[in-house]
Design a protein that fits this description.
Blueprint (H helix, E strand, L loop, with lengths): L18 H8 L4 H24 L1 H6 L14 H19 L8 H18 L1
Helix pairs in contact: 1-2, 4-5
Length: 121
């Protein structure tokens, strides 16, 4: 799922497998669907990193204390910039054709879209 981290134990010197490769091996989806789902995961990861950095108080309440020395910027310009960023990201996610994706990937896409819609609202 999107929000999970990939903290799997690997033997020393062993390369961790690519998420795209793993998806291709366990699903009946074609490579286009696998690549599109991987793109969604990348977009989500980037969004969560951006969200955490731009919302240091909320990030701290989620247990991530990387930006505890900062306060959020509540200026009208920054609020408008963040709203535009989320809206543009939401439009990109809405444009994804997920009907042929594996069921779990469809669920991830729907849940991520719902999260963005909540922020966009």
């Amino acid at each position: 799922m999107i929000a999970s981290t990939q903290a799997h134990a690997q033997p020393r010197g062993a390369a961790s497998p690519s998420p795209v490769t793993n998806k291709a091996l366990i699903s009946n989806a074609g490579s286009a669907e696998v690549m599109a789902a991987a793109a969604l995961h990348s977009i989500a990861k980037d969004y969560y990193n951006w969200r955490n950095e731009n919302s240091p108080i909320a990030s701290s309440s989620r247990g991530l204390h990387t930006w505890d020395d900062r306060m959020p910027d509540f200026s009208p310009a920054k609020i408008a910039e963040e709203a535009q960023h989320v809206h543009a990201l939401l439009e990109k996610v809405r444009a994804m054709k997920i009907d042929s994706w594996p069921k779990d990937e469809q669920i991830d896409a729907i849940l991520f879209r719902a999260q963005l819609e909540n922020v966009d609202f």
